[in-house]
Amino acid sequence: MDWHQQYIGKVKHAVFHTQKTGRKRVVVSTEENVIASLDLRHGEIFWRHVLGINDVVDGIDIALDVITLSSDGSTLRAWNLPDGQMVWESFLRGSKHSKPLLLVPTNLKVDKDSLILVSSKGCLHAVSSIDGEILWTRDFAAESVEVQQVIQLDESDQIYVVGYAGSSQFHAYQINAMNGELLNHETAAFSGGFVGDVALVSSDTLVTLDTTRSILVTVSFKNRKIAFQETHLSNLGEDSSGMVEILPSSLTGMFTVKINNYKLFIRLTSEDKLEVVHKVDHETVVSDALVFSEGKEAFAVVEHGGSKVDITVKPGQDWNNNLVQESIEMDHQRGLVHKVFINNYLRTDRSHGFRALIVMEDHSLLLVQQGKIVWNREDALASIIDVTTSELPVEKEGVSVAKVEHSLFEWLKGHMLKLKGTLMLASPEDVAAIQAIRLKSSEKSKMTRDHNGFRKLLIVLTKARKIFALHSGDGRVVWSLLLHKSEACDSPTELNLYQWQTPHHHAMDENPSVLVVGRCGVSSKAPAILSFVDTYTGKELNSFDLVHSAVQVMPLPFTDSTEQRLHLLVDDDRRIHLYPKTSEAISIFQQEFSNIYWYSVEADNGIIKGHAVKSKCAGEVLDDFCFETRVLWSIIFPMESEKIIAAVSRKQNEVVHTQAKVTSEQDVMYKYISKNLLFVATVAPKASGHIGSADPDEAWLVVYLIDTITGRILHRMTHHGAQGPVHAVLSENWVVYHYFNLRAHRYEMSVTEIYDQSRAENKDVLKLVLGKHNLTAPVSSYSRPEITTKSQTYFFTHSVKAVAVTSTAKGITSKQLLIGTIGDQVLALDKRFLDPRRSINPTQAEKEEGIIPLADSLPIIPQSYVTHSLKVEGLRGILTVPAKLESTTLVFAYGVDLFYTRLAPSRTYDSLTEDFSYALLLLTIVALVAAIFVTWVLSEKKELREKWR
Amino acid sequence: MPLCIHHHRCVPSSANQGGTSDGDVSKKSELAHRSVLHNLRNREQLFPCKFHHCTSAIELDSTQNSVHMASIIRSKSVLSVFFINLFLSLVSSAVAVSSGSGDGFSISGRVKLPGMSLKAFGSPGGKASNVKVVLNGGEHVTFLRPDGYFSFQNMSAGTHLIEVAAIGYFFSPVRVDVSARHPGKVQAALTETRRGLNELVLEQLREEQYYEIREPFSIMSLVKSPMGLMMGFMLVVVFLMPKLMENMDPEEMRRAQEEMRSQGVPSLANLIPGAGRS
């Protein structure tokens, strides 16, 4: 029923640990701030740590323990290699920002202690690898030198530190690594100035670019002398116009320059001349140099060729020689190779073999050895941006003859396999095949719709621009699709998923599809990209590069004849664009023209605006699908006292069962149910930072409930001495929000419920009989009903990462709040605990109604953690989807990990529980039948005896 | 620079914090020593007070010092010395050392897990490597050393919140006050129980059982289930009722039947065709 998957994210750095006997592993750090040790044989996680959001990993290495440098070079940690226990943690201080560098010199050892050199924040620190103690520190920021490289001189305890002061003064320091003593300091000015990265070609030579980015500068600092040598890129026979960049690499005697969209491998000859060795396109990736036996070096080059990827391992400095050349078939859904790390191993015949760890464009991680992919990890799933669900295909009843024949063969084959399995004749492959068949036909992982609506496809969009369909039964990837990249757009980013087409009544033959909205670039003004993806097949049906941007996307509650949902895209000029671009869509839209309203929240300016459609766009190009809009209302928050930190609206597809709520006093309260409610939270600008940055006296939190059609503020409440972050959920007629109370110094959760007073008069039976009631009047924002609100506040122990509410098919089942806590667990909390009608001493009638006596804090019952003893590391969001069974809701929590479960907030009242004992039921029936027969025989006998008497 | 002079009240002095000249030092340390003596003499008058003394004249091994304070300091300024912490810790209720150097304060503490002292790494909860310590709802996240210690650096003065995330245990968040006026004064309290802490040693309030214990199979649960009750009732009817009927006096029975007939109560037997024959 539940499943839990662990991921790590896109790998940034990888260090192999294979020298020792025992488990072979690779330690990686990722873009999700994860440090993990992976099994090199199977790719499983030995251990893993998810660092804080701001704790970006800068470097990783192995010196006895795993050493990681993070937080812009200010935190150095050591982790025990076998079990991942943190051994020590050191904080490095410095005054200035500089490039964080981590260096673990190979043979600088005193007893067992090896030295770790860290250059960060303008200082060079030497740290002991045993306890993390800082042995010595040298401040380069004082001399305004920005350190570029720390170089270990071969086999000695001396290091070179090179850097720039300003952009043209070059400094080289020779330092004794054991005690930090300065041995020598040379400096020289270069008139051209330096820019960009440096590439180290040997222990005393490096190459960089001058400020014009057209001259390669070779800097050698041999024998206490600094010499510059300039080489024009054009002298190398290359066109140097465009973007020139030196790529950081660690190849000896060679470096890589990226010019526009190709890469040059340039070698430094023995006469200190530069020559181009090879020219490749930009998709080619080079690994760092690997030192294997007796100081021999090797590096890997990965090139693309059609559907294949060619991996060549070359010995250092010799381009034309290959140690290994392999070609592997690569799924084109994985995109391009982004990074490669290599490692060597000894074959049985004492020769050297190489394995390569490849990071692909879709963030997946592959281990390649002997031309085969040994294992792969789909680590894009660690970076989910948006989730939606899709129904599975309906089970087909009528099947064509060809299909029957085909399935007959399959059926026979399946049975042969099963027979083999039972007769213990099956080979391992057969066993796997049997298991696959079993899995396919098992109730929970079938690829068809089920009666209860438990089986669904979870469509997830990831940062890697890859879309996955996960089966809700077991969490396996049904299909995955790397979105097509058009030539026009270099760096597309994906934003959201929308259900484009969900056929149910007519148009049953159409497959459902989702709309993926992205934009070309980072800014919100960048042109939008639309893609349509079939959710059954995982094929990209269509994709458009739009000319306008998409600041906001609004699915409308209308569909056309093929069940395509109408969507409105708002661009940065506040014009709206209608999709799909069909005449049918426009006719539907024109009918509802005057009923279309929306709102926009400008958090930076503190303005909320309501909009309506005005007219067709007036432009040179006639566009039927473009409309001008007008601002209906706006709410301007005073910038000096209020800053918007949260805006939450109701889920559009939420179902409310009843509007009336019968209280214990036989009284009726009418919920104010409007789809156009918006919850907004503002805080004092001073208190918008982290906890501890503001005094209670200068902090306040103001919450609003706003009708988004009219801009009417329905409710406003101030919490003095409170601050964010605010996590809120709006459902039915209530809103629950979580914030921090600075006075009590605890987190609080408040609930506010809104009731419609104008309907409260409908208690008179006579009125009801005579029809003089307004119950059938539609809930409309045009009317201005009297409303009342009730609120209550409780303490809540934990920080919160996400809040969601369960949703069921008909909205009858009571609700639970799903709270993602700071410990990456998901807690299910009954809405009954957040009921403003709770009082300290509820009356008997109220108790019967289910009102819980008021307590100052919300209870945390360990059994109500839906994740049980599992963690959804890096939790970011919780999605709830109703199942067809009213009692049940499907919950998907995602972060670095994924977790899926089914919840029944009021227990499964409409179906038997899973632990229902069918055996006992059968036994009872059998026993009853047996008893009937026995009694019948007995009574017959008795009757006979009576008659004889 | 605060100085403890009398009654352990921390009085901010006019001298600024960083710029203590060397000439000042001897006088100040003298003052400090005097106040320590004072402290020891007046132990009954407990008042949170902590000394922070920035001087370049005296250098103590800060690590050693802080071990006594159940905390570890890693500060750039080795020169900042907490030279009377050791004595003060006997009497003060302050909990963790913080340094008032230019980079902010640091908070150190320790998390005690039940399994950790026994090195029982087999149990999933008792493993220190699975514990995270979170500052201010995610501003910083740190991990535990094998001995359970943790520390946060570069903290601003003010009130902070420390939470411990450990699967299997319920920890109360801890409110930590870092005083700007009295550098080095840190107070901590559990927010759940409002209990003050003498040392920043965090212990779980309770263990958490995430799974409901499945009731063991017993014959009683079978009997108690609706179906069991049904079967039991049936058995009673089948086997005990005839016995009861037998024990009845046949005379009485006949009388009762006649009574019923005379009253004309439509008995069940009359309604069922065929049953009335006998």
UniProtKB/TrEMBL annotation, chain A:
Protein name listed in UniProt: ER membrane protein complex subunit 1
Native source organism of the sequence: Citrus sinensis (Sweet orange)
Automatic annotation (TrEMBL), chain B:
Keyword terms: Membrane, Signal, Transmembrane, Transmembrane helix
Localisation: Membrane
GO MF terms held by the record: carbohydrate binding
Statement: the UniProt record of this protein carries the keyword Cell membrane: no
Lineage, top ranks: Eukaryota, Viridiplantae, Streptophyta, Embryophyta, Tracheophyta
All residue ranges annotated as the ER membrane protein complex subunit 7 beta-sandwich domain in the record: 128-230
One annotated Gene Ontology cellular component of this protein: EMC complex
Alphabetical list of SUPFAM superfamilies matching this protein: Starch-binding domain-like
Membrane topology reported for the UniProt record: Single-pass membrane protein
Family note: Belongs to the EMC7 family.
Protein name, per record: ER membrane protein complex subunit 7 beta-sandwich domain-containing protein
Sequence intervals crossing the membrane: 78-97, 227-245
Keyword Electron transport: no
Region (Disordered): 259-278
Pfam families: EMC7_beta-sandw
Main location, first listed in the record: membrane
Coiled coil: none
